[in-house]
Every structure is written in C-alpha cells, then in structure tokens.
Amino acid sequence: MSDAPQLLTHAEEAALLRLARRSLEAAVRRKPEPRLPVEERTQTLLDPAGCFVTLMVAGQLRGCIGCPMPDLPLHEAVVVSAGDAALHDPRFERVQPGELEAIRLSVSVLTPPNPAPVQGWREFLAFVEPLRHGVILRNGRRSALFLPEVWQHFAPSPDPKSEFLSQLSRKAGDWSGDLWRDPATSFEVFETIHLQEPD
What we know:
Elements: H1 10-28, H2 43-46, E1 50-57, E2 60-67, H3 74-87, E3 103-110, E4 114-115, H4 120-127, E5 134-139, E6 142-146, H5 160-171, E7 186-190, E8 192-196
Antiparallel strand pairs: 1-2, 1-3, 3-8, 4-7, 5-6, 5-7
C-alpha cells in the first residue's frame, strides 16, 4: 500500500477548488480551458497525481470522472476531470449553464493505486478499511473504481464491505454483484485527500 497522500497547504487546496470551478464553467459554456495562475504553481500542484472531480446537486450525484493514474500534473488532471465530469459522464446528460449555480463541487487527490497485498477476496475483506481505501476492481476487460467517500453510502448496511464490493461489481458490468468473489478478480487500493467547496 502506498503512503498516505502528501498533505496540501490551505492555499493549494483553495487553488485546486478554484481551478476545478473555473474548468467546470468553461466546459459548460464552451470556453477555453483555464490555466493555473503562475503565482499558484507550487511543486505539489505541478507534480503528477491522479484525481477525481465530483459534482453534486442537492445531495445527488450529477457527475464524477477522474484520472486515477498519475499521468498528468495535478493541476492539469483537475482541469481535465472537471470538464469531463460536466460533459462526458455517461450516466448523465451534459451539465447545462443554468445548473452551474446549484452544483457543489469536490476534488479527490489520489495516491497511486497499488495491488492489495492479499490473495483472494476473503483476505481482501479483512484488509480493506472503509472510508480509508478507495478500490479498483479488475477482472479481464471489466474494471470499476469507487472513491473512499463512497463508503459512507453503505454505512447503514449490516455488511458494508460486501455491499460496497457488490455495487462495485455491478459498476463493472456484473449485474449479479458477485464479480468480486471470482478468483480471477484482483483489487487495487488507494487513498485520497478530499477537498470540497463550502456550502
């Protein structure tokens, strides 16, 4: 398992949220992608990192897309993810300009995903920690990812780990929800720093 995410300063957190908001609005209004101001370009924001941008309206998901692998500088990954969450989440219609004011936006900065140090789903159940670990499930060409924040939706369940993994299996296209028990399934885990716009 990778180390915990590198901490961000308050100024860096604010810069990422501003950049995500500007990117969201630019994508929806068909304007050029914004750039991180030169004076805000710290080394942490220039280093490669994965991220996801989540859009919520009145507590309901409106879009969530990201770059799970550290292939882009963090500030660029935020720009791409915010635009894609608004326009290219296949679960939703494109965000319209009239919706922008109601959207509450969050940014999750990821550690690089690493294979879970386990053999089989039983060991993984014992290993995975709700609210700490994000999970990537892989089985052949099928894969799916849940951020650590998704755990909160399963807290009322009598068996939140099984419910989390069953829903992750369904997201990967297995409607039975049992893909996570397949011996051919592998798991990767990561952690996040979660940043959220104020109400």
